[in-house]
Amino acid sequence: MSFAGPACAEPFDRAAWLADLEQARQAFHEKYANLDWLEGEREVGVDKLFADLAKRMGRAQNDAQAMAVFNRLARKTGDGHVVIEWPEPTAAATTSSGGAPSASFDLCGSIGYDQRQNEPGTAQALPGYAELASTGSPFHAGTLTVGDIRVGVVRIGIFQPQGYPELCRAAVHELAIPADKPCDDECQNRIVTFAYRDLTVTLEQRLQELAAAGATTLLVDLTNNGGGSEWAEAAARMFSSRKLVSERRGFVRGEHWAKQWRDLGGQLREFAKDAPAADKQRLLRWAAEADAALRQAQAPCPATSPACPRTATAGFSVGLVGSAPAGAFDGKEWGVLVFNPAQFPYHDGVWNGPLIVLTDQETWSAAEEFAAVLQDNRAAVVMGARTGGAGCGYTWGGTPTTLKNSGAVLKLPDCVRFRADGSNEVRGILPDVPVPLRADDGLALRARLIAEKLPEAIAHARALQAQAR
Length: 469
Fold this sequence. Notes:
The protein has helices at residues 14-31, 35-40, 46-59, 63-77, 107-110, 165-174, 185-212, 231-238, 255-273, 277-298, 335-338, 366-376, 443-468; strands at residues 83-85, 130-131, 141-146, 149-155, 217-221, 248-252, 311-316, 355-359, 381-384, 401-402, 409-411, 415-418, 433-434. The chain is an alpha/beta fold. The chain is globular, with a radius of gyration of 24 Å.
């Protein structure tokens, strides 16, 4: 089997493709975190699905048709984190002079900072929207009036700094990093740490500016947001003064997660050695929780046994601690080990008014996490369309399966985020105020449909806020 191109094409080897298909089937049974959801809620039986794919493979006449069978597998799951990556076609070897970068060298672009990650949203097209004066913030924001309600609007296009190249350029300048030289791992870590700090500070400033502009209800536009990182959990806490408890975490049994729990327990015990008495006690308690999770990860579980769930549950999406006030772990080097948002300099409740989160079918992953934690804690009303359904993805590189014959890489999510009602976040976030949007509708139509339902969403958000008092 080869991807060298027509001039070097090998005869079609159906048996090899079928072997890859069987390898993929086994991977689904052993590694796929959302298999119970796929077979239960989606009603897609994995073995039945693969039997159908094998029949289709039997009719394939070339590699392109065989690849289409595998691509169908990814589509049928309906899971945004089930991905098949195909090898690049063989190309002639290229040589490099090894000299200095060219005059057009873009350091930030070379390490993945790309404005195209931050796609435009929808709310800026709403009738009466007026953009706030620019303050150099990467976040578009503005206001509009609905009846006698002043609505603030803030756009979050992605939950990671790589979608905002201006943050990278600011870091390069402030940290005096040479802009004409390649950036190694240490350099990249300095930039991303600076960029996350700026991302946090500038979002807080935008929320303060909207309050100063008279906004009494806030709309967060997450349409066309592809996700990002766990910074979404810190961001969510800026939008509410309520105690937000994160989703429960599920994980696939096996060595991948066993290593994570083993390492975590060891790190916590190491920190406990020199910790003050109060910290020592809780560090050892958390280490014991990590040990219990480790035992679950190591527990033998036949892949085909319905009595033995493929996934186990321990902790929360943010760590062993599901909720903590901002700053609770300041000065604690180990804080991020138990509560991931502790690494970011955010403040709780920067916005403390009625809140609406706008979503569509192209709202994915970390953006769904943001919406879910606010909706589950009754801190926001979600309006728009049901989100794409990616849920939790891959931890520490995940557990990719390289198919032996084609060389394709099958990526399956190894973790689950369980909602407050016990459902898997991969189903997508269901809106409280549905809007009949389609991702491919024109901007004007999308804005009109949202505007028609906005008064209902505002009333709902204001009632939810009143209940919290």
